[in-house]
Amino acid sequence: MKLKDMMYVSLFAAVTAALGLLPPLTLSFTPVPITAQTLGVMLAGAVLGARRGFMSLLIFDLLVAAGAPLLSGGRGGFSVILGPSGGYILSWPIAALIIGYLVEKSWRSLRMWNMVAIQILGGIIFVYACGVTYTAMVLKTPWLANATASLIFIPGDLTKVVISSLVALQIKRIYPLIRQETEQKAA
C-alpha cells in the first residue's frame, strides 16, 4: 500500500472517530445508541472506494477492540464488540466495502439517485441486517422485536445518506480519489 493510500485510510478512520465525539443518544427501549459514526462509514466507502474504505473501518474496528475510546460516548474495548452494538460496529468495514464497490462499478454514471441507493443498501440495509441479528443473539430476544426497535434509527440514517451522498459527489467532482485508483490499476 502506498503512503498516499495509508494517509487516506487513516484520515477516514480518524473522521469516523471524530464523529464519535458527538454524544450518543440513548433510548430506553433499545440498548444500541444513536450515533453519527455511520456517516463516516458511508463516506469512507463512497469517497475512498472498496479497498481503502474497508481498510479504514477495519483499522477503526481494531482500535476499538484494542480499547481505544473511539466510539460515541468514549466507549471502546472488546466488551463493546461483544455487547448489543457489536454487530453494527463489526459490519462497518464490510458496509464500506459494499458501498465502495458499488460506487466504483457505477463511477461513470454516478448521480445523486444511485449514490443514495448505494448508501441505503450498504450503509443502512446491510448494517441493520448485521446489527439487528447480532443484538438479537446477544440479548437472546426475538429478531423482529429488535428490528422494530431499530426503526427509530431510520430518519437519522436517511439524513446521513443524503449528507454523505452530497459530500461524496462533490469530492468526486473536485478531487476524485476513486478514479485515480482505477487508473492506477489499469496502468
Can I get a quick summary?
The chain is mainly alpha-helical and 187 residues long. It contains nine helices and two strands; from the N terminus they run H-E-E-H-H-H-H-H-H-H-H. It has a single domain (3-186), classed as Arp2/3 complex 21 kDa subunit ARPC3 (Orthogonal Bundle).
Give a description of the structure:
There is one protein chain. This protein has 9 helices and 2 strands. Strand 1 and strand 2 form a beta hairpin. It starts with a helix and ends with a helix. It has a single domain, classed as Arp2/3 complex 21 kDa subunit ARPC3 (Orthogonal Bundle). Strands 1-2 form a two-stranded antiparallel ribbon. Helix 2 packs parallel to helix 8, helix 3 packs antiparallel against helix 5 and helix 6 packs across helix 7. With 187 residues, the protein is mainly alpha-helical. It is found in: Cell membrane. InterPro entries: BioY (IPR003784).
- Helix/strand-derived category reads mainly alpha
Low-confidence stretches: none
Number of domains: 1
The biggest sheet, with number of strands, parallel, antiparallel or mixed sense and barrel status, is: 2 strands, antiparallel
Shape: globular
Q: In which order are the strands of the major sheet placed? A: 1-2
Beta strand count: 2
- Second CATH tier, the architecture: Orthogonal Bundle
Number of helix segments? 9
CATH C-level category: Mainly Alpha
Q: What are the secondary-structure elements, in order, as H or E? A: HEEHHHHHHHH
Question: For the terminal residues, how far apart are their CA atoms?
Answer: 16 Å
CATH domain fold name = Arp2/3 complex 21 kDa subunit ARPC3
Rg calc? 16 Å
Organism: Ectobacillus ponti
Pfam families: BioY
Transmembrane segments: 30-50, 57-74, 86-103, 115-137, 143-169
Main location: membrane
